[in-house]
Amino acid sequence: MKKPWLRIVAIVVAVLVVIIIALPFLINVNSYRPKIESEASTALGRQVTIGNLSLSIFSGSVEADNVTIADDPAFSKSPFLTAKSLKIGVQLLPLIFAKQLKITEIVLEKPQITLLRAANGTWNYSSLGGSSAKKPSEGKPGESTAANLSVGKLNINDGVLMVGRANSRTKPRVYDKVNISVTDFSSTSQFPFKLTANTPSGGTADISGKAGPINPTDASKTPFETQVKINNANIAATGFVDPASGIGGVASLNGTLTSNGSQAKAVGTFTGAKLTLAPKATPAPETVVIKHAVDYDLDKESGAVTQGDISIGKAQAHLTGTFKSEGETEVVNLKLNGPAMSVEALEAMLPAFGIALPSGSQLKGELCQRIWRSPAQLTSWLSRVQSRSPTLAWQVLT
Asked: Residue 383: phi, psi to the nearest 5?
């Protein structure tokens, strides 16, 4: 005969299994939906809506479908974010016995996120965090009433990121296969993150580092420090250059990007292949490598190139200057200095400027520093020589 305690253990186990199976049916998790929507809306400062909720005891999670986060009404009436499903990891005991919702993990599956920038430089995510939902009578001017949102893990899987300008006819840039992982997220402290994505028309981006704490009045000014790796990105498709400029090619970047919320700094190495630098130009056969350091003022939307060491094969040049955003226009004031640069190296870049040498012609010698410091004058001179002497074998001497 079996021992009585074995039978008792078997009965207890059976009862626990029945309870685990029955709990999702006994707990009406949809009754928490108004509270979840309300607290999420308060935390983000945007209207948040979710669809049907379901509870999984075995995974300790609540799942929701059809998630939508509204955009800032000053930018768009379309949603800022939509997602097919949202998984929220929760602590089961507080949920079951105290009806308290304590979040341990958030996972968004296949979201579509739209980032828009206004003409004055403001982004539509700047007001995320509750500042847009603040009532005039609460707190001091400029303070946010956002809750201290804290989550152990926050993941975005297989998302689509669309980046564009508000009230613009230009199509937004589309980054797909966006995956973001964040651990120990808190709105009031620094947290580590990693982002990977496909860039428009090919290429990949890999960004990792730390960010936070979230700026309570403007999320776009949240400080961060990151390592950035971009491979084989189509320059023309990124949307950062005017299509009419003719600038294109394939770019790779390896460097760092840091910001304290007001000032940003980029340091690294840019590698450009098959570059075009003028309308109707043909890709240059030489690869261009630029070791750079750029300072950027987020408030003034202006910056300075403090280092721009350019290598074209064995040839060396240096680029410095300033740039500034004025609406959808970028105003640049750059100086290119290439003393004693050989014209053989320059010849390899002529196609990128839309300049074609006559058949059988070539450049020899060294290009004088005076001409090289004036690219517009050089281009005009080469055009005149080509038109007047189509069979001339050019020799440029210092």
From this structure: -65, -40
Burial of 84 (0-12, 13-18, 19+ CB in 10 A): middle
Q: Where on the phi/psi map is residue 85: left (φ > 0), alpha (ψ -120 to 50), or beta?
A: beta
Q: In DSSP terms, which residues pair with 211 in a beta bridge?
A: 191, 224
Distance separating the N- and C-terminal Cα atoms of the chain = 109
312 part of a folded domain: no
Residue 330's H or E segment, with its range, is strand 329-337
Token pair for residue 292?
């750079």
Contacts of 211 (CB under 8 A, 6+ apart): 190, 191, 193, 222, 223, 224, 225, 226
Q: Could you give the angle at the alpha carbon of 327 between the alpha carbons of 323 and 328, nearest 5°?
A: 85
- Residue type for 354, please? G
* Residue 395 falls inside a structural domain: no
Domain around 181:
27-133+144-205
Is 297 part of a structural domain of the chain? no
Q: Does 114 fall in a domain? A: yes
pLDDT in tens, the chain (398 residues): 456 655 555 555 555 554 444 444 445 667 778 887 887 788 788 899 988 887 766 666 778 888 999 999 989 889 999 998 888 776 666 655 666 666 778 889 999 999 998 888 788 988 887 544 444 444 444 344 444 667 888 899 999 999 988 888 778 889 999 999 999 988 889 999 999 999 988 899 999 999 999 888 888 889 999 999 999 999 888 777 777 778 889 999 999 999 999 999 999 999 999 988 888 888 888 888 999 999 999 888 899 999 999 888 778 888 889 988 776 677 778 887 877 677 777 777 778 877 777 776 666 655 444 344 445 555 555 555 444 433 333 333 32
Indicate the pTM of the whole model.
0.73
Using the Cα atoms of residue 97, residue 100, residue 105 and residue 109 in order, give the sign of their dihedral: positive
- CB of 62 within 8 A of CB of 27? no
Q: How many domains does the chain have?
A: 1
C-alpha distance from residue 289 to each of 8, 245, 305, 375 (Å): 75, 21, 15, 19
